[in-house]
């Protein structure tokens, strides 16, 4: 009974954990405006939420592991040989559920950490690109003027050479 309650609670937590990780990646990937217009605490609050949920899920997984161990001790005791097959089947089912939840948790956590690391690495590159694009209007205009002046000088030099 306790195992089923923890499994239900873990299932709900894992779904919300997965949604948090998905929303983090979609807000980061979908954002194209400069970092000056985004809230400063948005990423850090999601990081804190991630850490809190990860700790809660790890604690629930630990509790479920303990309950599964207690059930294994009970099924191995000498007083229950007649119900041993049914109990072993139930225990195996709970172990499989625990293994699935643990695998899902670690996979989701690894994906989130990879997305966060990618964003941290590429964030400075995006900022540099945006600053170059915003500043390139002035530099681009200045470069065009220099190129035109250079072309005029070359044409003048060519005409003088032809005249001489």
From TrEMBL:
Family matches, as InterPro entries: Golgi_SNAP_su1
Superkingdom to which the source organism belongs: Eukaryota
Biological role: Involved in transport from the ER to the Golgi apparatus as well as in intra-Golgi transport. It belongs to a super-family of proteins called t-SNAREs or soluble NSF (N-ethylmaleimide-sensitive factor) attachment protein receptor. May play a protective role against hydrogen peroxide induced cytotoxicity under glutathione depleted conditions in neuronal cells by regulating the intracellular ROS levels via inhibition of p38 MAPK (MAPK11, MAPK12, MAPK13 and MAPK14). Participates in docking and fusion stage of ER to cis-Golgi transport.
Compartment(s): Golgi apparatus membrane
Organism (species): Antrostomus carolinensis (Chuck-will's-widow)
Transmembrane feature ranges: none
This protein's name: Golgi SNAP receptor complex member 1
Listed GO MF terms: SNAP receptor activity
Listed GO biological process terms: endoplasmic reticulum to Golgi vesicle-mediated transport; inter-Golgi cisterna vesicle-mediated transport; protein transport; vesicle fusion
């Amino acid at each position: 009974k306790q195992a089923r309650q923890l499994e239900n609670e873990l299932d709900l937590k894992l779904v919300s954990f997965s949604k948090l990780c998905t929303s983090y990646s979609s807000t980061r990937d979908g954002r194209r405006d400069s970092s000056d217009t985004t809230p400063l605490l948005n990423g850090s609050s999601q990081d804190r939420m991630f850490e809190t949920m990860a700790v809660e899920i790890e604690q629930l997984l630990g509790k479920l592991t303990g309950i599964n161990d207690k059930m294994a001790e009970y099924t191995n005791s000498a007083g229950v040989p007649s119900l041993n097959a049914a109990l072993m089947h139930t225990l195996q089912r709970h172990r499989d559920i625990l293994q699935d939840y643990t695998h899902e948790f670690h996979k989701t956590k690894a994906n989130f950490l990879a997305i966060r690391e990618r964003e941290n690495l590429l964030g400075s590159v995006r900022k540099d690109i945006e600053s170059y694009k915003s500043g390139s209007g002035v530099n681009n205009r200045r470069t065009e003027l220099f190129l035109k002046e250079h072309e005029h000088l070359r044409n003048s030099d060519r005409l003088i050479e032809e005249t001489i």
